[in-house]
Specification:
Elements lengths: L1 H44 L15 E5 L8 E5 L11 E7 L6 E3 L5 E4 L10 E10 L5 E13 L7 E2 L3 E7 L7 E4 L2 E2 L13 E6 L4 E3 L5 E4 L13 E9 L9 E11 L7 E2 L3 E7 L7 E8 L9 E7 L6 E5 L5 E6 L10 E10 L15 E10 L6 E2 L4 E6 L7 E4 L2 E2 L8 E5 L9 E3 L5 E4 L10 E10 L6 E11 L7 E2 L4 E5 L9 E8 L10 E5 L9 E5 L4 E6 L11 E10 L6 E13 L5 E3 L2 H8 L3 H27 L35 H4 L36 H13 L47 H10 L9
Parallel strand pairs: 1-7, 9-16, 18-24, 26-33, 35-41
Antiparallel strand pairs: 2-5, 3-6, 4-5, 6-7, 8-11, 10-14, 12-15, 13-14, 15-16, 17-19, 19-22, 20-23, 21-22, 23-24, 25-28, 27-31, 29-32, 30-31, 32-33, 34-36, 36-39, 37-40, 38-39, 40-41, 41-42
Length: 800
């Protein structure tokens, strides 16, 4: 059929070309005749005029059918020149695209032929040039003329799809007419000539599930949601056909394959494969141990098939749990609480399963979205060890309880149905001192050795319960024993106390020379209460006394006005300490009091050699250590001094901004009271003359850092007091915003308005012919103490 069509087209085209050639010849001959007529008219006038000749040959284009299948050369047309008289003196020459290879011309008569089979899809036209020359002289007789050879298209290319295979997907349950994908085909034939490249699409495989639009190639679903169910069929293979010639008969076709997959939607709830599950578990299983697995089936895929399980009913609701295995989507039943075969031998659970994702209920109808299953769990009996009645035992006993005293008792029993007898023992690893024991039959715990709360207030032991007939069946019960306190320890001094007393004290002056406290190893319920007093015997009672402060401390006071180192340098004062618990306990502590020489302020200056040695209370080794430390310290000082000499002398002030901890030596001498530039002595004489806004000299002046200071209130001379003045100056410096964040020297230049020293004038002194007390001379210094001893009328060393 295709060959017949080609032959008919070739015949038609040949006739057309012949007609064009005949017409061209007629036109050329007519042109020649008109030229001759014009020559005759001009010649008759006897003049030679310039005239315009028409070109003897002129071609625009030739047409050639593609895919020529004949055995001879394909004739294209004939080139004819007016100068060709047929005498063989002219020569036709061809140049351009394919000249001499694809196209040839008969140099004698101008016939143009195609030597090869041409394909319009490779090249649609060729541009050629032709000219005529004289064979003998080679002179061009005609100017070169350009023409085109066009190839006529035939329907020789079938449609080709952009892909040989399409893979697409569409959700299941999609509505009818849902777009799936679009396929596209192309045709290499000439779309401007006939219907060779006009395509139509059709579906040859895939009915009745899908359809395709003829003009666009869009594939759509052809069935409703009820038919497009992934669980029934998931994969479809559709064959699409593209046909040229607008789909008419005789057109060429191309095909492609489209693989369509229905994607899953959550349209199926999970369902148990069976309604009743049965498991058995031994009663010894611990909490959290898996019992068994149940599984529901969901026809969906991926997240749409994820589910979770939970216990919603049954008598085992509180005894068992269920968790979901994310990998296998199984429900794992686990033990929630300890099991006991003797109490309950079986349990029933109602377990529910449902999807984690929202379920599409459009296609479920009246079907439930959840499913239920019954699980029956049987408990198996296990030979268990004895079980104590309590998880732990707490017992109390007094620390002075006699050996053999019962502290308490424990009790365990065989939980099995056999009710085997139990014997008790103590784990000696928890009672290394063997202070306790337990009766093997009744579990009574008793004391085997004396106890002391001050050594250990708590004892933690373990009692072992063992089945009499099965020694391997054992269990342990912790027992915590607390020892109750008994007042069996006397209070003692909290530390070693040692103090001193001055030789000379003012008449009638009673001083607290030491405060003492006590400790007690006992722990009474109401807390400690101590009482202090002097021992009832001894000569020290006339020299010292004890005053109980009522807060478990006491003060030791002197009862004499003066003491003498020469007479007695050390006093041992016994203090009786008594607690307030029952039975009352007491002890005697000794306070060491040494007689020393003191200054007027009561500070110790000198004690005798015995006092120095004994008061230190140091051993020979300690004295050697102290001596070594002193030597090392001296060496460090010498080394530091040597390094300081070698160190380069630094400038007086390293930085103007840094004035901290710098000692500035001006190396000048003040002018005394007359030198008012260096120091204003008037501040000592007249406190009211102090400047109100005197700036500090240890920091850099700044206008912004020195707001006006408030005026210092100076007490009047009638009630002026040094302490009030100093406190006022301290407050001013504390509130000064320019005070530096480091230690600085603040001068409180105020002498005061009076003196505690009495007048030395004899006119104001009271004179008496009677005995005088010269002890006040001791306050004047060491030089006057001897004088006071010489003129003293009363022997101060006598004991009253």
């Amino acid at each position: 059929m295709r060959t017949c069509l080609l032959v008919m087209l070739w015949a038609s085209l040949s006739l057309y070309v012949d007609n064009m050639s005949i017409t061209r010849r007629i036109v050329v001959e007519m042109g020649e005749m008109e030229g001759e007529k014009e020559e005759d008219r001009d010649g008759g006038k006897g003049e030679k005029l310039l005239k315009r000749f028409k070109r003897g040959w002129m071609w625009n284009q030739f047409f050639l059918q593609e895919e020529y299948t004949g055995s001879d050369k394909q004739y294209i047309g004939k080139l004819q020149s007016d100068m060709d008289r047929g005498d063989g003196t002219l020569k036709y020459i061809l140049s351009g695209d394919g000249a001499g290879d694809i196209f040839t011309i008969d140099e004698n008569n101008g016939d143009l032929h195609a030597n090869k089979r041409l394909d319009r899809e490779d090249k649609a036209f060729y541009t050629l040039r032709a000219t005529v020359v004289n064979k003998n002289t080679g002179i061009k007789l005609e100017p070169e003329t350009e023409f085109i050879v066009k190839l006529h298209d035939i329907n020789d290319n079938e449609p080709i799809f952009t892909k040989e295979l399409y893979t697409v997907s569409v959700p299941e349950r999609s509505n009818m007419g849902t777009s799936v994908t679009q396929v596209t085909a192309t045709d290499a034939d000439d779309s401007m000539y006939g219907n060779s490249a006009k395509l139509r699409y059709s579906i040859s495989q895939g009915h009745p599930y899908f359809s395709v639009e003829p003009d666009t190639g869009i594939i759509r679903t052809a069935l409703g949601p009820g038919e497009m169910d992934r669980e029934k069929r998931e994969h479809y293979q559709v064959v699409i056909e593209a046909k040229d010639m607008a789909g008419q008969r005789g057109g060429l076709t191309g095909t492609t394959t489209v693989n369509i997959t229905l994607t899953d939607v959550n349209d199926n709830p999970p369902r148990f494969s069976q309604s009743i599950y049965q498991f058995s578990v031994p009663e010894s299983m611990k909490a959290g141990t898996p019992v068994g697995r149940i599984k529901a089936v969901d026809k969906d895929l991926g997240k749409n098939a994820e589910m979770f399980y939970n216990v919603v009913g049954g008598d085992g609701l509180d005894m068992f749990d269920v968790i979901t295995d994310k990998d296998s989507q199984e429900g794992i039943i686990t033990v929630g609480k300890p099991l006991d075969y003797e109490k309950t031998r079986s349990y029933t659970l109602e377990i529910q399963v449902q999807n984690t994702q929202t379920l599409d209920t459009r296609f479920l109808g009246y079907l439930p979205t959840k499913d239920m299953a019954t699980v029956r769990i049987g408990i198996e009996d296990v030979d268990e060890p004895p079980l104590f009645e309590r998880a732990s035992y707490m017992m109390e006993v007094k620390e002075d309880a006699a050996v053999g005293t019962a502290v308490g008792s424990v009790r365990a029993m065989d939980p099995d149905g056999y009710n085997s007898p139990v014997r008790y023992s103590i784990d000696r690893r928890t009672d290394l001192d063997r202070l306790f024991n337990v009766h093997s039959g009744n579990g009574s715990v008793f004391i085997t050795r004396p106890l002391d709360r001050e050594e250990a207030a708590w004892h933690n032991i373990s009692v072992i319960a063992t089945e009499f007939n099965k020694p391997l069946q054992t269990s342990r019960g912790p027992v915590y024993i607390r020892l109750l306190d008994v007042n069996d320890n006397a209070p003692t001094f909290a530390s070693f106390y040692e103090t001193f007393v001055c030789e000379k004290t003012k008449a009638g002056q009673v001083r607290n020379i030491q405060t003492v406290s006590a400790v007690d190893a006992d722990d009474p319920a109401g807390g400690h209460k101590f009482f202090f007093s002097l021992a009832t015997e001894g000569a020290y009672r006339g020299n010292f006394t004890v005053r109980d402060n009522g807060d478990n401390t006491a003060g030791v006071l002197t009862r004499r006005s003066s003491y003498s180192r020469l007479h007695k340098s050390v006093y041992l004062v016994p203090v009786v300490i008594t607690d307030g618990d029952f039975p009352m306990q007491s002890s005697t502590g000794t306070l060491t009091v040494r007689v020393c020489t003191c200054d007027r302020e009561g500070n110790m200056e000198l004690c005798n050699a015995e006092a120095q040695t004994s008061s230190a209370g140091l051993s020979t080794g300690a004295l050697v250590a102290i001596l070594l430390c002193v030597i090392i310290l001296l060496m460090i000082i010498v080394l530091f001094a040597a390094l300081k000499k070698q160190k380069k002398k630094e400038p007086l002030i390293i930085s103007k901004e840094d004035v901290r901890d710098n000692v500035v030596s001006y190396n000048d001498e003040g002018g005394g009271e007359e030198d008012t530039q260096a120091f204003d002595i008037g501040a000592l004489r007249n406190p009211e003359a102090i400047e109100e806004s005197k700036q500090r000299r240890d920091i850099i002046p700044s206008d912004t850092l020195y707001p006006p200071l408030r005026q210092t209130v100076i007490p009047s001379r009638d009630n002026a007091d040094v302490r009030d003045f100093i406190n006022q100056r301290v407050q001013d410096n504390d509130n000064n915003p320019t005070a530096p964040p480091y230690d600085s020297l603040a001068t409180y230049a105020y002498e005061g308005t009076g003196s505690v020293a009495e007048s030395l004038s004899s006119l104001g002194s009271a004179s008496s012919e009677g005995d005088q007390d010269y002890n006040y001379l001791s306050d004047w210094g060491p030089r006057f103490r001897k004088l006071a001893d010489m003129y003293g009328a009363e022997d101060s060393d006598c004991d009253s």
